[in-house]
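seq:
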Amino acid sequence: MYEPIRTKSVHTMAAGHDTFPHRSREEELDIQLAGHLSALLAVTDEIRQAAGDPELDRAAEELATQVARLRGGRPPVRSAVAAAIHEPHVAALHQRAHALAGRALVVAASRADTAAAILAAQRMEYHAGAGHLVSA
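struct:
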């Protein structure tokens, strides 16, 4: 009644499936967390140029330390923004930093990285308050 299947199913594993490297879930989360923290560092460096707040200097160093730890000791690329920044732009940067810190917090919590989670929560709190001050 039915013709038998003569070819391999598309769902069977290919013969050379071990030829490309696989990463563990923890490695993937490390990469993702390092990316979020690097983006947060870039935004923090941009805000630092406008605000000159010593809190941001300390936060940038802590972020750089965490990114280097997650990347096996390789330091992150730092931003050197020299453009004139005006108030509405700074408010948008604080909103962006708050969102990035939130993403980093979610990933840090899922991989049980307490140091990164605490740092991300502190950054969220800072940027939430700073964003309201700038836009007010």
